[in-house]
Design goal:
The complex is a heterodimer of chains A (321) and B (364).
Chain A: H1 3-32, H2 40-58, H3 61-85, H4 90-113, E1 130-131, H5 145-153, E2 156-157, H6 158-176, H7 178-188, H8 190-195, H9 200-226, H10 238-248, H11 253-272, E3 276-278, E4 281-283, H12 285-301
Antiparallel strand pairs in A: 1-2, 3-4
Helix pairs in contact in A: 1-5, 1-6, 1-9, 1-10, 1-11, 2-3, 2-4, 2-9, 2-10, 3-4, 3-9, 6-7, 6-11, 7-9, 10-11, 10-12, 11-12
Chain B: H1 6-31, H2 36-48, H3 51-76, H4 84-101, H5 107-136, H6 140-163, H7 185-189, H8 205-222, H9 224-234, H10 236-241, H11 246-273, H12 284-294, H13 299-322, H14 329-343, H15 345-363
Helix pairs in contact in B: 1-14, 1-15, 2-3, 2-13, 3-8, 3-11, 3-12, 3-13, 4-5, 4-6, 4-11, 4-12, 5-6, 5-11, 8-9, 8-11, 8-13, 9-11, 12-13, 12-14, 14-15
Classes of the chains: A mainly alpha (321), B mainly alpha (364).
Main location (chain A): membrane
Protein name (chain A): ABC transporter permease
Transmembrane segments (chain A): 12-29, 62-84, 91-113, 158-175, 205-224, 254-270
């Protein structure tokens, strides 16, 4: 494998890791506040459709992005209503949201565009363009660094850079602000937060809403930057891979970056090579597809490091009377 | 003291949830510019007014009974088995291996052999998540989700690289031998001059599913094991105190659950396609969640809910055929049922409890 191929694989790793990273950070906020969210997939899917639909009709990708975020926020609100206000089962609510998005997107897409559950392809201003970073062309001749800068670092859409910037931002919010401290506390011991006079319900709703915004961006990225338009079930399990990455990352932002890059790399390799030969032994492509899930089960089993979820995760908070 | 009479809990709450889901679905149909009444009439006509429609409805219901029972048994032990889909896929593999490599002389023996194969494979696929939950404390919901995806990869690999006949293009196994073909409803109920269930896939497996409902009822309410499963579901510490091993019961409950989910593929793989195909489960594993919630985890409730969803499935197919409403309407209805009977249960329950309390106060 020469240097250029290597760079191309890494480049597509970055593209494929971006939605995973955004969804993973989304889940991180929610689960750190004690709300399990297996509805990441559904929120991304809904956002993907509405961003593509609005970008197509308005001709502006920014309106599309906004619509995607709003759609995702509505589903987040539903999840909050079910799991915070009505203290229902968070997992069941997540399952319902996934199906709701899977069904509604196709239903609405068919009703609006009549193209068998997809949106028309986007072009021009209805898509996120790739951004040329300064001097990318000029530096291309520099050995090693030039192509690296041109191929890998430059030439992504703005959402990719935003996603990567979210990692230090999330770290800062969680570990260096009062809000972050309370958010983490409400996922570990909500009663203590309540005793301190801070609203558990308010904090958890805030976390769920942040989760909605990030899922919305992830979905919009899928439909308006990675691909040009919405197709049925286009998230293809990415929400669950993000969930796997979140466990793999042990609910921490920097680890989330490395976990999603790893899973993105697996996807990029599986996309480029149908099967890989390693020392006379052929690794089937199906194994590459399943590897993120297998790795997650191994991590969950606690044989390689232990992933300990937030202690109050999944439990509705009942104020003592 | 119970806040509500038992009948309200069992009948009224699911009914109200169902009405809410139906009402919202009607709004959705209105919003996409179709008439809900026409749609409902079409669904009833397509699914219930012809014997062939019933043949499809009951075929789907058979699948949902198995997957619904699978989720219900796990619910009794307070385990959420979301992996029915993967367990059913592997169950299909068990059916295929049993039918391709053993020369069955008669379909009845093949049915038994395929059921055993499906149950064993489904149970084994549930074993690892069960063990990890019981021994290592890994959350069963996450592991079973992961195992769904791993199952899809395994099935894909086995079909493409092992079971696919030489020269065939599509990822599917060879046809099962004719001696294993199950009698369909048409074979069973048609007379010479009156052909019923024409072309419908419902087959003898339906009765197996009904038997499974009865068996689960006996298991949960009439055996020691069932008592232990329910005890664990109510209180783990209480069960421990009574000398029940949580590890053992968790694993056994999940094995039964996985076996039931796996047996769904007897219906699809042996009964309908008569070969193993890639997407034989078609999401039935997930519909099991809605069916179990709707049926309040009771085998009779599961039976009724499975038939309801069978009707929705077949009716939805009719809608997709004759109107501009895509099949995904069923996914929306399914989501709403899960939402109202599962996640938003308290939204329906709280006002009802208040109502019954105030009624009782007035009487006292």
């Amino acid at each position: 494998m020469d240097y250029m191929t290597f760079l191309q694989v890494l480049d597509s790793t970055v593209r494929l890791a971006t939605p995973l990273l955004l969804a993973c950070l989304a889940g991180l906020y929610s689960e750190r506040a004690g709300i399990f969210d297996i509805g990441l997939e559904g929120k991304m899917l809904a956002a993907a459709f509405f961003s593509a639909a609005f970008a197509y009709t308005s001709g502006s990708v920014w309106i599309g992005l906004l619509a995607g975020i709003v759609a995702s926020l509505i589903l987040s609100g539903l999840h909050g209503l079910a799991s915070i206000t009505f203290r229902g089962n968070q997992l069941i609510s997540g399952v319902a949201i996934n199906f709701l998005a899977a069904g509604m997107t196709v239903l609405v897409a068919q009703s609006w565009f009549e193209q068998g559950g997809r949106t028309p392809s986007l072009s021009g201003n209805a898509r996120f363009d790739s951004i040329e970073l300064p001097f990318a062309d000029a530096l291309q001749g520099v050995p090693i660094f030039g192509p690296l800068y041109y191929e890998l670092i430059s030439g992504h859409s703005i959402l990719v850079y935003a996603a990567f910037a979210m990692v230090p931002l999330t770290w800062w919010v969680l570990y260096r602000t009062r809000f972050g401290l309370r958010l983490r506390a409400v996922g570990e011991n909500p009663a203590a937060v309540d005793t301190a006079g801070v609203s558990v319900v308010g904090l958890r709703y805030a976390a769920v809403m942040i989760c909605g915004v990030l899922c919305g961006i992830a979905g919009a990225y899928l439909a308006t930057a990675l691909q040009a338009g919405f197709v049925k079930d286009m998230t293809a399990g990415r929400g669950f891979i993000a969930l796997a990455a979140l466990i793999f990352a042990k609910w921490r932002p920097w680890y989330a970056l490395s976990a999603t890059l790893l899973f993105g790399l697996l996807q990029a390799v599986a996309l480029r090579y149908q099967s890989i030969e390693l020392g006379g032994f052929v690794i089937p492509v199906q194994f590459m597809d399943a590897l993120p899930y297998i790795l997650t089960v191994v991590i969950l089993a606690g044989f390689v490091g232990k992933a300990i979820p937030p202690r109050a995760g999944g439990e509705p908070y009942v104020k003592e009377r | 003291m119970d806040k509500m009479p038992k009948w309200a809990d069992i009948v009224l709450i699911p009914l109200i949830s169902l009405l809410l889901a139906a009402g919202l679905s009607a709004l959705v149909i209105l919003a996409i510019g179709e008439s809900p009444i026409d749609a409902f009439t079409l669904m009833v006509q397509g699914a219930l007014m012809r014997s062939a429609g019933w043949g499809y409805t009951l075929y789907y219901a058979t699948n949902f009974m198995f997957t619904g029972l699978a989720v219900a048994v796990a619910f009794h032990a307070r385990l959420f088995n979301i992996g029915g889909e993967g367990q059913a896929m592997l169950g299909g593999l068990g059916v295929a291996i049993a039918c391709l490599y053993i020369p069955w002389p008669h379909w009845s023996l093949a049915l038994i052999g395929a059921s055993v194969g499906a149950a064993v494979f489904g149970a084994l696929w549930a074993l690892i998540p069960a063990y990890l939950q019981a021994k290592r404390g890994s959350h069963i919901v996450i592991t079973t989700i992961m195992f769904n995806f791993i199952a899809a990869a395994v099935l894909n690999y086995v079909l493409v690289n092992m079971l696919r006949p030489v020269g065939a293009m599509d990822p599917a196994s060879a046809k099962f031998p004719v001696s294993t073909h199950l009698p369909t409803f048409r074979d069973m109920f048609s007379t010479a001059d009156n052909i019923l269930f024409r072309g419908a896939p419902a087959n003898v497996t339906f009765f197996l599913a009904v038997a499974a409902c009865l068996a689960v009822w006996v298991l949960i309410w009439r055996t020691r094991l069932g008592y232990e499963i329910r005890a664990l579901g109510h209180s783990e510490s209480g069960a421990k105190y009574a000398g029940i091993s949580p590890v053992k019961i968790t694993v056994i409950a999940m094995l039964i659950s996985g076996a039931l989910a796996g047996m769904m593929s007897v219906n699809t793989t042996l009964g309908e396609s008569e070969r193993l195909i890639l997407n034989s489960t078609e999401g039935a594993g997930f519909i099991g969640i809605a069916v179990a919630l709707m049926g309040r985890s009771h085998p009779f409730g599961v039976f009724l809910a499975a038939i309801l969803f069978g009707f929705l499935y077949q009716g939805g197919a009719e809608l997709a055929l004759w109107t501009n409403i895509p099949r995904e309407l069923i996914v929306v209805i399914q989501a709403l049922v899960i939402l109202f009977t599962g996640a938003l249960d308290n939204m329906v329950r709280m006002p009802l409890e208040k109502l019954f309390l105030s009624l009782r106060k007035r009487k006292a």
